[in-house]
Design goal:
single chain; two-stranded antiparallel ribbon; about 70% helix
Length: about 350
């Protein structure tokens, strides 16, 4: 067996194989539901109902999708240029720390000026976290997969130290969390009385801006063939630096939106793995910005719906984790078969 490159994949091959991967994911999830002792169609129906079956469920799904859009965009931007950013979790927490630091009264500015300033500062923090591994890669050839992955643990320990020290809320009854953000530093709610905030709108704007930026063409050229891009006059090193700044900044906006829009303070568990899940979102979206929004809604719907389904029929919520892991593996296989044809000899 050997793999033969496909010169120009057809539209049916480009769309059909990923669609088949998602259908296979649903089939596997149904089989696992049967093994768990629940009717498969009932389980899938309850997931859909729990995620989109009511106004409250829909808004909670959108709320859960907000950080996933940011981290999915961050990963898609980097992966497009073959900058393997596995550290979106660290960049998210960097943005969250800056938000908690500046939003608790350090800047006594009106909301119209304070919120953009905090968002920009958070993006700069996330950009710096990814800039270090990128410089190490471009100057010394250090593998960015290792450095970005290890930075996740370094930054998480740093946040833990801050929450036990300088950022610890003196009125928090000993709990490791920051003080509450002042009202001027909070993102307003889209629907009054519910948790959905304008971070979701910011995520949609980020996806639209990313889709139209001219930097995307340079990143794609560098990702496809760095030697050819360099021959064509594209500065590979600066493009990777700009890619890192954009990717890290987008991931940091996830931390900004979670602290300023949802939580109101910084805790060590503010992210249940949004940075890692962003990799799944980006791969399911085929690194397309608008596809990231759709994939984030799908992933968020699976998680939110799985909670409701678990309470209704007693099936473990781990079914959602298996669905997403299966979807990622099958999507990677589908992407490979889109670009390569299997030949038997």
């Amino acid at each position: 067996m050997r793999l033969e490159p496909v010169a120009q994949p057809t539209l049916a091959r480009t769309i059909g194989l990923p669609a088949l991967a998602l259908a296979a994911t649903v089939a596997i999830a149904s089989l696992l539901a049967m093994v768990a002792g629940a009717p498969p169609l009932s389980v899938l129906g309850l997931i859909l109902k729990g995620a989109f079956g009511s106004k409250f469920a829909l808004l909670e799904t959108l709320n859960r999708a907000t950080p996933l859009i940011f981290t999915g965009l961050a990963v898609a931007v980097a992966f497009r240029a073959r900058l393997w950013n596995i550290g979106a979790e660290a960049q998210l927490y960097a943005g969250a720390v800056v938000t908690a630091t500046l939003g608790t009264g350090a800047l006594a500015w009106p909301s119209g000026l304070l919120l953009p300033s905090i968002a920009l500062a958070a993006m700069l923090a996330g950009a710096f976290v990814l800039l270090v591994p990128t410089v190490l890669k471009t100057r010394f050839g250090v593998d960015e997969v290792v450095t970005t992955l290890l930075l996740n643990f370094v930054v998480l320990l740093w946040v833990s130290m801050l929450l036990e020290g300088p950022l610890k809320d003196p009125m928090g009854m000993g709990w490791p969390k920051s003080a509450r953000l002042i009202p001027e530093a909070r993102l307003p709610r889209i629907v009054e009385g519910l948790r959905l905030h304008w971070g979701f709108g910011l995520a949609l704007i980020a996806a639209a801006v990313k889709a139209r930026t001219t930097l995307g063409y340079e990143m794609r050229a560098v990702g496809l063939n760095r030697a050819a891009a360099k021959f064509a006059g594209i500065p590979v090193g600066p493009v990777l630096i700009k890619t890192a700044l954009l990717s890290g900044g987008l991931a940091a906006l996830a931390g900004f939106s979670e602290v300023a829009g949802l939580k109101g303070s910084l805790t060590l568990d503010i992210s249940p793995g949004f940075g890692y899940t962003g990799i799944i979102v980006a791969m399911l979206a085929l690194l397309n910005p608008f596809g990231v929004v759709v994939a984030a809604l799908f992933v968020a719907g699976v998680f939110v719906g799985a909670d409701s389904m678990s309470r209704a029929v007693g099936v473990p919520t781990y079914l959602a984790d298996i669905m997403l892991a299966t979807a990622l593996l099958l999507m990677v296989l589908a992407l490979m078969l889109t670009r390569f044809r299997v030949r038997w000899e």
